[in-house]
Structure formats: structure tokens, C-alpha cells
Amino acid sequence: MSRPAKALIDLEALRYNCQLANSLSPNSQTMAVVKANAYGHGAVPVAHALTDLVPAFGVACIEEAIELREAGIENPIHLLEGAFSNDEISIAAEQHFSLAVVNQEQKRANLNANPSTPLRVWICVDTGMHRLGLAPDELTSTYRELATSNNVAGDIVVATHFACADDLENDFTAIQLTRMTQAADELQVPKSFANSAGLIGWPDTRADWNRPGIMLYGSSPFSTPHPDADRLLPVMTFTSAVIALRDIQPGETVGYAATWKAERPTRIATVAIGYGDGYPLHAPSGTPVLINGQRCPMVGRVSMDMITVDVTDLPSVTIEDEVTLWGAGLSVNEIAACAGTVSYELLTRMPRRAPRVYING
Length: 361
Ligand SMILES: Cc1ncc(COP(=O)(O)O)c(C=O)c1O
Hints:
This protein is of the alpha/beta class. The protein is 26% helix and 22% strand. It has helices at 11-24, 35-39, 43-50, 62-70, 86-95, 104-112, 139-147, 172-183, 196-201, 332-338, 343-348; strands spanning 6-10, 29-33, 56-59, 77-79, 97-101, 121-124, 157-159, 191-192, 209-210, 236-248, 253-254, 260-261, 266-271, 288-291, 294-299, 307-310, 322-326, 356-359. The longest helix is centred in the first third of the chain and has 14 residues, at 11-24. Residues 33, 80, 161, 195-197, 211-215, 221 line the site of pyridoxal-5'-phosphate.
């Protein structure tokens, strides 16, 4: 038997979530965001599974775009942070990658480049996130410079990104949207605003292009229930198995630093998963796992390769029983909340160690 830790990736669930994203905004085009190795799910298999459902993919850097091209993905690929050097502009032209233009330096680099074919560009406007993008009052002049350059071809898309769309009570999304519409008032151009939270929770942000990421992988962008987000299906099920069982007496402690103490005669199951596999070190005692579909509390500190679970109330547990860390039946959002983080971090930080096993492809 090989080490049982693995991440099952359900490609049918991925496609279902993508179809849900498409159906929420049927007149829009979906750019599937597959950066960071498709949020840990494997960019190449994910892109292959979505290639007929979306017109384009979004990535953070040219290496991610090249990986997809080399794997035979022919869809347009968009670099969400633009080109970091003149070499990258040349590669983008050759490989038909579209480029975000996030500041005046990138604009000038695109205008002064000597691309083998004209560039496709999206202008990114900073409407309040204050991370990347041109100031709203720079949009019209920047658009005109790019649109009249021989270096640029096709529709220029105008984009912005929301800071608080995951908080449905927060009116900052509406404020950002107003800033964007005012800035783009004079321009008849395609627009792109919505990430997953915008697409699901803020219908006014749906535009010519939507850019969902996390929802494709079945994780709700919200921390409270939402009827559409709750229809998403988990794509990754992170599983392992029980590799040891022992009984300990009240007063005995478990794990590094002896942080957890038994208060009753306790049966401890050791599970082959740890922070070296991507399970969060900071998951506290009490974080649930599923053993044979039943919730049990993880106890003690997470080790590099193992965790320990109190299975006293589940006397039927035996060695080799399957354990779900998150996924089907136990949402990654719940585990992230226990560990004081977000699903994005848990998913994107999954190392290669736990093999991805693709199912329903
Ligand atoms: C510019 C941009 N658009 C879209 C997305 C996708 O966001 P989400 O995963 O929240 O849908 C991201 C992700 O961080 C992003 O940076």
C-alpha cells in the first residue's frame, strides 16, 4: 500500500461549476481564472476540462500561460498582471497572450515594443482596491493612445477588480462600480468587472467578460449562505487514511508540545496527512475530519506528515479507513475558517506531495 494521502479532483464538478458561472450571466463571456496552478487543482488538466466551456483563461504570469500553451491549450490566455519585461511582450505577441495594462510604464512598454503580431490588451482601472491599475481619470487618454497604436489590435477591454465583493453588506462594491462606469462613460468598449463574488452576489457587476476563479473550484466566495453559491460542488476532495490506532488514559497528552490532553479514556486515530501535504498547521484541536463519512475532531498539533483524531465515539474505525480532510461532505471553507485563513490559501498552497487524482474526466 502506498501512502494514502491524495487530492481527488472531480472534473465533472468543475465543469458543473463553470456552467453555473456561465448560466448566471448568459450574455457574458467567462474568463476562467486558472492562476496558481488552477488554485492548486492542476492548471493543465483543469484547462483541458474547461476548454470548450470558456473562451479564455486568466493567469498571473507568463510562465503559467506558457505551461498551458505547451500543453496544447489553444484558447486565448490573459496575463492579469500584464508583462513584466519587454521579452514577455514579445512572447505574448508570438503566443497570442493578451496583456493587462496596469500602469503607465506597461502602457509605454507596449507602445514602444516591436511585437511580431499586434498585441491584445485590457486596461485595468484602480477604482478603490489600490493594488494595480490606472487612475480612473487616466482611462480615456490611455485608451486612445493604445487604440490608435499599430502595436495594438482588437477590442480593448476595460477592467477593474473589487475589494469587498465577498461581503454582501458592504456598499464599496457599488461605489467601485459607479467609479468605473463614470470613468468609462465616454468609451464604447467591452468591460470586465466581476470575480466570483461579483458574478454570484452583485448582478450589476456582470459585464461583457466575467473572471471567476474560486467558484469554479466549488468554494463559495461568501462566508454566509447564498442560494447560488450553495449550488457549487466541491472539486477537490483531500483524503487520506487511518494508519494507527491507540487508546490513551485521561490526563495523557497527544502530539508535539503536548497541547491536547485527554479528559476521558480516548481512542486516537493517526491519519497520514500533515502540513507537508497542505493541511493547515494552524488548524486547532476540534477541527473536523470525516472518517467513513462521520465527523470527528482532530486533536493536538498538526505534524508535517500526520494528524491525530479523537475517534472514541466511532468505535468501528479501523486502520486503512478513509479520512476526508475537506471536499465532498466537508467544505474547505469550514476548514479554512477553523484555521483562521481562507479557502484560497488552503487550495493554492497544496504542495505536489499529495498526488492529484483526476476523476469523472
Ligand atoms: C484580477 C483578478 N480577477 C479575477 C480573479 C478571480 O477571483 P475569485 O477567485 O475571487 O473569483 C482574481 C483572483 O484573485 C484576480 O486577481
